[in-house]
Design goal:
The structure holds 2 protein chains of 2 kinds. Helix content of chain A is 0%, strand content 54%. Chain A is mainly beta. Chain A starts with a strand and ends with a strand. Chain B is an all-beta fold. Chain B is built from no helices and 11 strands. In chain B, the strands form 2 sheets. In chain B, strands 2, 4, 5, 9, 10 and 11 form a 6-stranded mixed sheet that branches. Chain B has a 5-stranded antiparallel sheet with strand order 1-3-8-7-6, with no helix packed on it. In chain B, strand 4 and strand 5 form a beta hairpin. Chain B is globular, with a radius of gyration of 13 Å. The chains are: A mainly beta, B mainly beta. Chains A and B meet through strand 5 and strand 10 of A and strand 4, strand 5, strand 9 and strand 10 of B.
Amino acid sequence: DAGVIQSPRHEVTEMGQEVTLRCKPISGHDYLFWYRQTMMRGLELLIYFNNNVPIDDSGMPEDRFSAKMPNASFSTLKIQPSEPRDSAVYFCASSRDRGAGELFFGEGSRLTVL
Amino acid sequence: KNQVEQSPQSLIILEGKNCTLQCNYTVSPFSNLRWYKQDTGRGPVSLTIMTFSENTKSNGRYTATLDADTKQSSLHITASQLSDSASYICVVSATEYGNKLVFGAGTILRVKS
């Protein structure tokens, strides 16, 4: 398997623009997680899905953030409108279960909002 | 206060030397404790996963230990290599919160020749 695939790897945009980050989880994994990593706060869970259904979005910072999982092989994280404080590395991860087994991370999408 | 505290924050060692990274946690009860390695510009990669009943687990030159009584874990790296330069993150799975993963801030290790 190719692992968790994220795109784009790097995104530079201007404040106010819409940003869409994409993720393809490992086939057969029922759980998909979106994390944000910054120097100040480390890794933070934004939202996770189980069988394509959002289960916990309490980590989503504001209404400007939204996430979808239309099918088992694709998820998006959207920020609209983007702000400079959204600059971070966004990771997608997938696993067969929640918290008991192996969690596999993608390579991340580095977002810079000017 | 973070429920998972790691020390030191950063560390520089010479190639070939051993080192030990520490993780203290207050998460209780917990189902497992993990150590991840994150290379610069890459995603975290799992090194070890230990359940609460395990005391030690090895992965090549990496050995993790767990003392559930004192709520401490350590990651020992033997005969360090330049490729060990990375951030090492301790993660605890909180049973009370449906196995939610609680992340430490990480220890940045630099191995120099």
